[in-house]
Amino acid sequence: MFGLFKKKKTPPTFAPLRTDMHCHLLPLVDDGSKSLEESLEVLQTMKEVGFEEVRLTPHYQYPRFPNREDDILERYKNFCDEVSRNRGDKELPQLKGVTGEYRIDDGFQEHVDRGQLLTYHFADPKRGSAKGLLLLELSLHQPVMGFDEIIFERQMEGYDIILAHPERYPYFSSHSEKLDQMKEQGVYFQANILSLDGFYGEEARKKAFEFIANGWIDFLGTDMHNVMYAQGLRHAAQNKKIIQLLEREEFENKNLVEQ
Description:
Helix content is 34%, strand content 15%.
C-alpha cells in the first residue's frame, strides 16, 4: 500500500535532449578522445546523465586536422565494431552516425568541391533541405573575412547550416547584428552545454544564456572531447539553472536522424 506513495524517480538531467549532436569521441582523429578506452568511459558518463544517442562530429580543420570524409566513415565503422566488442556490461548511448564539425578556413572549399560533406537530417522529411544540416564552426580568436557569404553560398547549394557554439566566439555579443542577421537567414545555432556551466569562462556562460533568451539557440551539444570534459558534464548535470532551463525550453536534438 505504501508503495503507491513512493516518490517518482527523477530522470537524468539531459534526458529531455535525448541526443547529443556534437562530440569528438572518434579516437585519434582530432583533439578529442585518444583511445577506445577513453571514449567508452566518456560514453558511459553521457548515458548516466541522460543521453540515449550520440552523433560523432570530428573536426575538419586545415592544416591541423586534415581529415577526409571517406576515411572518417571507415574509422567510424571500425569504431562501432570496437565499441560493440569491448563495451562489456557498460550502459552506453547508441552511436547514431558520424558527420563533422567543419571549420571555415583555407581548407574548407576543398571539402565543398569534393561534394562529400557529412550532414544531419531532421526526422520529419518535410523539414530541412535534401542535403541536410551542416555543422560549421568559426575561428575562436578572430572573424574570418566573408564567412557570412560562405555560409550563404552553402545555403544556396541546398544545405541547412548549424553554427557551432556562437557563445564561444569573442567577437559576437548578445546584441550582435551579424548573429541576428544569420538567424533571419535561417541559420541554426548550437550552444555548448558546458558553456552554460562556466567551463569556458564567465563570458561564454553569460552569452550562452543570453542567446537562449534571445531565442537564437536551436540545439545543445556537449562538445565532448575527453575525460576532463566528462567530469565537467557531470558537474553541469547538477546545475539547477541548467535543469530548470531544460524543463522549460525545447531544443531540436531529438528531432535528428541518421544521415
